[in-house]
Design goal:
Largest sheet: 6 strands, antiparallel
CATH topology of the largest domain: Beta-Lactamase
Number of helices: 11
Helix content: 55-70%
Structural class: alpha/beta
Length: 383
């Protein structure tokens, strides 16, 4: 690529000489007046300006002042080529930021090589700027990825404080919304199916159909500007996916693909906890009913045995037994009946059920002040 060079000098012979020297190396434009140079500078991005101090209409120093009003990254390098070697003029030119000040007459070959060296220096500067831009881009990418992973870690931490499906869904949706993603989420099990949209609370019929159709399409399924992330019991629909190939797109794919199993695992834990609570409550109720039944059966059995004992005693006179014989049989019957009055089997069953209930240890979540919880969450700044 040839650099654009402006030669501003009213000496026609010098312009022809410079054209012959540099036309193969640079894209040249010429001006005889300062005003003409101003117009060209406003129209074209020059990398170099070869400038005479004494132009017919204005001083070359005025051109330098005009150049200094341009944005710093678009200012060309200025080389003064002049017969004026006055110290004050030279000093002022350098104060205005000129790259070099060459007095006439000058060595043509040396001047040609000097300008080529300036060109090589510009190329090195451009290469360094590009390298710096690349490093900045990589750094920005790393920071964005770090921020994404930081948000993911924060969400995983918050999932541990979710003890029901709706709280779990809202926590996930708010975290993703904080990152700029508008999503809907569905959790499902044998006992329930819950779907929430961060924008309208309840999912539309279309979104429910999308979940139903795409929940078995693999971990990640892209369609148009949307993407769904699936696991066995959880699906997250991202409604505003970034353009494919961008850093944001790659970041959400990477993070969500690793995050969805954690959400699924937490939902399974919530379902298991709910099942354990239900099982414990059912066993507790069963134990209560069994205890009442045992007490009722024992009472009925005692009454039955007492009736049998009374009827046997009343029937002894029909057998023509003396008092000793009656007493013997009464003691025998009473001893045998009483020995079978109580049974330990039902007591054993009660003890077994009570042991099962006691063995189910369910840690209920502690109540936490909402204001304190919000304050703690606000203080978490991972990145």
């Amino acid at each position: 690529m040839k650099y654009n060079v402006l030669i501003a000098d009213d000496d026609e012979h010098l312009r022809d000489l410079l054209k012959m020297m540099f036309q193969d190396s640079f894209a040249l434009q010429f001006a005889e007046l300062a005003e003409e140079a101003f117009q060209l500078i406003n129209q074209t991005q020059f990398q170099f300006i070869i400038l005479d101090i004494h132009l017919p209409d204005k001083s070359g120093l005025d051109v330098c002042r005009q150049i200094n009003t341009l944005p710093e990254d678009s200012r060309p390098q200025v080389v003064i080529l002049s017969g004026d070697s006055d110290d004050a003029t030279v000093k002022e030119a350098y104060e205005l930021g000129v790259g070099d000040y060459i007095c006439k007459p000058f060595n043509v070959t040396a001047f040609h090589e000097r300008l080529l060296r300036f060109s090589a220096d510009l190329e090195k500067i451009a290469a360094l700027e590009q390298q710096d831009a690349n490093i900045h881009s990589v750094t920005e990418t790393v920071m964005k990825q770090a921020a994404s992973y930081g948000n993911a870690l924060e969400l995983v931490s918050k999932l541990n404080s979710c003890h029901d499906a709706r709280t779990l869904c809202n926590t996930v949706l708010q975290n993703l919304l904080h990152q700029g993603f508008h999503c809907a989420i569905q959790v499902r099990s044998q006992d329930e199916s819950l779907a929430i949209d961060v924008d309208v609370t309840e999912c539309s019929e279309i979104e429910l159909q999308i979940f139903d159709l795409l929940k078995s399409k693999g971990r990640i399924y892209n369609f148009r500007k949307r993407c769904i992330f699936n696991d066995e019991h959880v699906s997250i629909l991202v409604k505003n996916m970034p353009h494919e190939g961008t850093q944001s797109y790659d970041s959400i794919l990477d993070v969500a693909a690793k995050l969805i199993p954690a959400i699924n695992a937490r939902y399974i834990s919530i379902c298991e906890h709910r099942s354990l609570v239900a099982a414990k409550n059912a066993l507790t109720h069963t134990l209560s009913v069994l205890s009442e039944g045992v007490e009722q059966m024992e009472g009925e059995k005692r009454k039955l045995l007492e009736n049998i004992e009374m009827h046997i005693g009343l029937s002894f006179h029909q057998l023509d037994l003396n008092e000793d014989q009656e007493a013997f049989f009464l003691n025998l019957i009473e001893r045998e009946i009483r020995s079978r009055e109580e049974s330990n089997k039902l007591d054993t069953i009660q003890q077994m059920i009570a042991g099962c209930v006691d063995s189910i240890q369910i840690l209920e979540p502690e109540e936490q002040d909402s204001g304190q919880a919000d304050s703690l969450q606000d203080d978490i700044e991972l990145f």
